Amino acid sequence: MAINKHILLAVSGGIAAYKSAELVRLLRKNGAEVRVVMTQAATQFVSTLTFQALSGHAVHTDLLNAEAEHAMDHISLARWADALLIAPASANTIAKCSQGLADDLLSTLYLAATCPVYVAPAMNQAMWHHSATQENIAKLKTHGVIVIGPEPGEQACGETGLGRMSEPAAICEQISASTSPQPLQGVSVLISAGPTREPLDPVRYITNRSSGKMGYALANAALQAGANVTLISGPVSLPAPAGVDLVKVDTAAQMYQAIISRAEAHAIYIGTAAVADYTPIEVQPEKIKKHDHETSILLKKTEDILAAVAKLPQRPFTVGFAAETENLAANAVGKLTNKNLDMIAANWVGHNAQNGGFDSEVNALQLFWKNGQKNLALADKRLLAKQLIDVIAERFNEKNTT
Prior knowledge:
eight-stranded mixed β-sheet, alpha/beta, 13 helices, Rossmann fold
């Protein structure tokens, strides 16, 4: 990861301001020159001296600075910056920027900046979900602002939910991807993610343990690589990456229809969804009652989505996933060949998963393609997704230039 740019970091008031100190360190470590602007509220959480020591430059807090050229820091800093990063971005700062208010250095810089702008929100989960905040975020996106996060988890107030500022490493990765050559620039990518639910009756269904985390991470990584992404998602508890075309489905049949109807319009298809192999022959119209005797459920095979995509007349570059509990390499290569895939990514689940796989934040993959393979070591799924997208882009571009 390299960020050889002038990064202007604007820190607004909030407990997440402490993360911005680490953000400065990581940005500089990766080659960026960093200068810091702080609101008065931000200085109540972290001192200006901390950011001065980490950045190697004086920290700017005042809109009108008599010592600056023409006393206009907002103009000189805006022209210096290759990118403006507001992190953390409080609800108040987001509101001011979206409405074009300019009553302090940070909000005035936002209006004066002609460079790319990144915003990393951080606030209480109720504040994030409030319609006013969501309207302000939507408006920022119409300005061309790139919104990073927020993330779910525990908050300083003791509540849990969406609103935590993204971790500094994740922010650096996104800025690096945005300022680096994009290997999938303009390429249309279709991704399926999450489980399916096969109903038994109005209240019960058959499903699996897929969380959708890998598929959603791949969607985000493909966006960062410059792709136009459509995400077909089964039922998950994850926010969709900003910028994807999200299509929600429940059953294997719905996912089949959503993918097959769109696949030929996309250059790449990545099938990470854990689609049910079987579905009940009959769905009971009323709740099945408990009886003293045993019961049985008759199942029928679902359509094989990967194989169907690979057989399309105008097939995309097709990447499958294989979650295995045994004979990983042999099973993956067999699926690669039998389904005529361009590539397959295999991972262990169950007792062989080594803390990766379903429900985990980490995973490891073994990639196979005709006459080639590559191992991706155990890592955070976001990092793993970027590595996988890089390999897919390399194989896709090679296939389309030979």
